[in-house]
Amino acid sequence: MEFLLRLLQCFLKLISIVIYPLLNLLLARKGPSTIPPIRNQLVTYPLVDVIKLMRQRKLKSVDLVKAYIERIKEVDPHINAVVQDRFEGALEDAKRADGLIAKATGEQLSALFRRYILLGIPFTVKESCGLKGMPIRVGSRQRAHLISAANGDVVNNVVAAGGIPLLVSITPEYCFSMETNPATQKRCLNPYDNKRTAGGSSGGEGALNGAGASLFGVASDIAGSIRFPSLFNGVFGHKPTGGITSIEGHFPDSKDKVCREYLQLGPITRFGRDLGLLTQIMAGKNAEKLDLLTPVETKDIKIFYALGFDGLNGVLHKSPETEMALSILTALKYLKSRGCEVERAPMTDFRNSLEISLGSLVLLEDFPYLINTANKKNLNEFLTEMGKAILGKSEYTRDALYFESIRRFNATMSTENILKYKAEAEELKTKFAKLLGNNGVFFFPTFPVPAIHHNSSILFLSNVDYCMIFNILGFPTTHIPMGHDDNGLPVGFQVVAAPYKDKLCFQIAGELEAAYGGWVIPTPHQLEPLK
Ligand SMILES: *[C@@H]1O[C@H](CO)[C@@H](O)[C@H](O)[C@H]1NC(C)=O
Ligand SMILES: *[C@@H]1O[C@H](CO)[C@@H](O)[C@H](O)[C@H]1NC(C)=O
Questions:
Q1: What are the Amidase domain coordinates in residue numbering (predicted)?
Q2: CATH class of the region 35-352+419-516
Q3: Pocket test for ligand 1, best of 361, 381, 415 (most atoms within 8 A of CB)
Q4: Which H helix or E strand runs over 236?
């Protein structure tokens, strides 16, 4: 362990113990959600059902696209999740898809759907993932004029499968935060409680999906950016095995080869049963490596679990709230009844989880800096900007600067020590992959608390390794929603598997969704009969 780093962590923990309960009191308990109820049944169907209805010609792309456009228009004033839409273009795309489907006869129709699995199906895109012709400012004023010249690889895979992009959604500046409060537009709000953040950095996708305004989103995750928003907004999110999805076209990125392992694009969706198909499409050719077509039986899965870090590492982190831990125990009990073997995993090998996570981030070559990338060793300009930000006078956001300070100050570690932790990560990876084996998964908190208040992510920053350690190790992990706490906020946990065993995560997600209902809408539906 690193003394100075852990001292800072301890300091943050102590402040959060004092301040956070006060914030909770001051900001009053949650009122009713302001999100309008869902009326149109079409936006309640999972992707697998939508595909069937389209193939049977019982559903038109135009109707589905219109239903989602209406839902987005209705909820966005309550969540501020959209950077820019392309609704008109999407309706044109939908008409074209309907035309193709109408023209095709018997055999041709099957061939058409084999070629375009997502023909006519709308989806949303985290701005940083790159959608052709749309902004890619990623919350930064300096990037305000930038437009994507091409689709990012993963977005392109979805478009090539026939998917229709509706919009690009909001992120924090450079994706450098656990909450989505960019320099370029109003902060993103949580659909379950607008005093709280939708999380970050895929906050826009989290909020849209949580509000029932997207069938699925393309998102990205280098330190929990898919899983935090999935937890905070009560939806499923998958961070694939390192290197499975391409990061080409994403901002920020890095030419450093390991960045392709740490940073992964993946789906956010209300429907756990859709995760396998979505990951298959997003992964493109690499999907073969995941052997998704060979089925898994739930009873053959062995479950390891931990309710948090242990030993001194556990003490220094914020420990998970009761209802977060309960979500794991509830799932374990159910899966045991389904025939799964369950065993507590020792966490001693994770004792340097924070050092490993932050050290690996520091070592990333040419990952962009907010300020003065060319001369990153000169801290003057950075420190001046940081001072201005604290006084509210900077054109950069405070959160992004805090995050960047981790890299600027080498997370308080010497290069020699960082390299030592990196070697330790390699050992941990081998050992933990061996423990999980071909049929093992690991249940672990995604984060110690449900959706946090706006402006409070700094207090929780040193808990980023609950998620980030699995980016560094390259293990696939899925956040699974497991209902609400007493305040009506979504709770849940992450299920991790050994590299290339993503399908074990999907099997558990589907099983728990069937048993516990998965996503629960912020405001009850008021469905109108289908026309
Ligand atoms: C961080 O590490 C780099 C490379 O080892 C070194 O050049 C730089 O001076 C360090 N920065 C600080 C603030 O310690
Ligand atoms: C959070 O901080 C911003 C300034 O960055 C301020 O405008 C806003 O009022 C704060 N919100 C809360 C809920 O404290």
A1: 63-505
A2: alpha beta
A3: 415
A4: strand 236-239
Specify the 3-state DSSP secondary structure of 45.
coil
Main-chain dihedrals φ then ψ at residue 373, nearest 5 degrees? -60, -40
Give nearest CA residue, ligand 1 atom 9. Answer: 377
| Helix boundaries (H) for 193-349 | 203-210, 227-232, 259-262, 275-283, 311-316, 322-337
% of the chain exceeding 70 in pLDDT:
98
CA distances from 426 to 1, 148, 312, 362 (A): 17, 36, 22, 17
- Please give the Cα distance from 378 to 469 (Å, whole number): 29
- Residue list, ligand 1 pocket, CB within 6 Å: 377, 409-410, 415
* Strand duo 189-190 + 193-197: pairing: antiparallel
Atom in ligand 1 nearest the alpha carbon of residue 410: 1
> What atom in ligand 2 is closest to the CA of residue 195?
13
What mean pLDDT comes out for the span 399-421? 95
d(CA 361, ligand 2 centre) in Å: 28
List the residue whose alpha carbon is closest to atom 10 of ligand 1.
410
Residue whose tokens read 């935090």: 228
Which of 119-123, 302-306, 487-491 is predicted with the least confidence, judged by mean pLDDT? 487-491
Nearest-angstrom CA–CA distance, 272 and 253: 28
Domain ranges of the chain: 35-352+419-516
DSSP category for residue 218: E
pLDDT at 28: 63
Compute the distance between CA of residue 504 and CA of residue 482 in angstroms, rounded to an integer. 18
Under 8 Å between Cβ of 526 and 39: yes
The verdict on whether 405 is a catalytic residue reads no
Q: From ligand 2's centre to the CA of 318, what distance in Å?
A: 24
Residue among 148, 169, 177, 201 flagged as catalytic: 201
Catalytic site includes residue 132: no
Q: Which strand (E) or helix (H) includes residue 508?
A: helix 502-516
């998958």: which residue's tokens? Answer: 238
Query: What is the SS3 assignment for 301?
Result: coil
* Residue 422 a catalytic site member: no
